[in-house]
């Protein structure tokens, strides 16, 4: 058995990942978006902006770390695979095999509860034995499997790199991290994990209140206030829908091609807005109803440049997830450029970001009203594919 206690100063960033040592602990963040859970998780794209542990490690091994996260999410990469922590509830690729990654939804991972307590340190332990895999969070067994494809790989002497990436807007603080290599199998101490425990039968008909019922009173009130505000706007005229599975609330302004979504998962939420893509039909026919992100940012900057700057920074960067059918747009603000998936702005679970959402749409509504008064065109019914913007 060999224990590698990692010197935090030897963990090196790459790409847009950033690190800082404060009080002997390592803060990790990135200034570029790294995940998109609506498409296959592109590991190579995300690894461009990660922090890499020194050396490579031989199976079987266990990774132990004490970390603190302030906002979803972070990903642990091992070889060609990954494990996500505190990702949104619709992430169906929470676990990817280290030896034979497929980029497809992992059925074992559907039952993996990867939630973390935000703002406080938690112990995480991940064991890759030759015949079993286990994830412990805060001492609780959150995942166990004897079915992962790597267990059937004969080359157990392979050495694997280990790296970590934090999502944009998140800060991951690492207090300690170690990797223990075992000479033989190190049987995991079993907990109470059951594959079916998260597969709860859905309500017959989810309601607005049932979707937000798991949130704290503070965030229930923020969602309610935003709900009332959006539905009151004219001419935007948002229409609210509830996902049949009860985990998502969507607001769509069909006349203006913009949407806002709140996704809940137990006591957590994520929310975002953007100029939506119409995806009915073949990929080559996908298009946007409209995209007024650039002019909205410029309009906001006239009276509230700090809000415009925050919104521009929170725009989700293109990670190349859609290939040749990408409808990414190139936006410019304050001397900077950002290639993005139809102006999607990803927001944090905090009161300030709910205030920013309401202020953004207050300005957007005023701009659309002004454009209608001036007789300007509001909607391009079919945008061409913008392959040139990907160069």
How would you summarize this macromolecular structure in one to three sentences?
With 391 residues, this protein is α+β, with helices and mostly antiparallel strands.
Helix fraction, binned, reads 10-25%
The low-confidence runs, each spanning 5 or more residues with pLDDT under 50, are: 37-43, 196-200, 381-391
The count of domains is: 2
Largest sheet: 8 strands, antiparallel
How is the quaternary structure best described?
single chain
- Class from helix and strand fractions: alpha+beta
Number of distinct helices: 6
Number of strands: 25
Beta-strand share of residues = 25-35%
What global shape is seen? Answer: elongated
What is the mean predicted local confidence, pLDDT?
86
Rounded radius of gyration (Å): 22 Å
Distance between the amino and carboxyl termini: 49 Å
Architecture overview:
Helix content is 17%, strand content 33%. By secondary structure, the protein is of the alpha+beta class. It has two domains: 2-181, Jelly Rolls; 208-390, no CATH class. Strands 1, 3, 4, 7, 11, 12, 13 and 16 form an eight-stranded antiparallel beta sheet that branches. Strands 17, 18, 19, 20, 23, 24 and 25 form a seven-stranded antiparallel beta sheet that branches. Strands 2-5-15-8-9-10 form a six-stranded antiparallel beta sheet. The longest helix is centred in the last third of the chain and has 24 residues, at 351-374.
